[in-house]
Amino acid sequence: MINNVTLIGRLTKDVELKYTPANQAVAQFTLAVNRTFKNANGERESDFINCVIWRKSAENFANWVKKGALIGITGRIQTRNYENQQGQRVYITEVITENFQMLESRSQQQGQQQAQPQQAKQQSSTPNFGRDSDPFSGDSPMDLNSDDLPF
């Protein structure tokens, strides 16, 4: 059986880190993932995917990732259900995140957040995914600060 998920999207809000009664860290978050096609009005839609991450990875994720950050994750789809107060069965499908990767530096994230009001006026027809700048082009040395590293 194969149950693998790979997603690239933007975090819809800051991560809220919680702990179980057994002191296990858990964080829930939502990724906005662009669809590859446009709707009947010519607009690109997004799917909002609910995700969960556990233990030390959850703590690292909550400490390093902020709203609007471009994130790549791998994991698996899991469904669960419960009975709500009205006696109805509620089904939840979410991605259990096993690995994550930040796909922008903090300075790029801050620039993205400042540019969002301007970008709302001039939407791009396709997602950029970092094509505007290539950190491996050799034009200038990379400015890495130990504060930017998640370990």
UniProtKB/TrEMBL annotation:
CDD domains: SSB_OBF. GO terms for cellular component: nucleoid. One of its GO terms (molecular function) is single-stranded DNA binding. The keyword DNA-binding applies. Keywords: DNA-binding. Residues 103-151 are annotated as: Disordered. Residues 108-123 have a biased composition (Low complexity). PROSITE patterns: SSB. It comes from the Bacteria. One of its GO terms (biological process) is DNA repair. The keyword Endoplasmic reticulum does not apply. Homotetramer. NCBIfam families: ssb. This is Single-stranded DNA-binding protein. It comes from Pseudolactococcus chungangensis CAU 28 = DSM 22330.
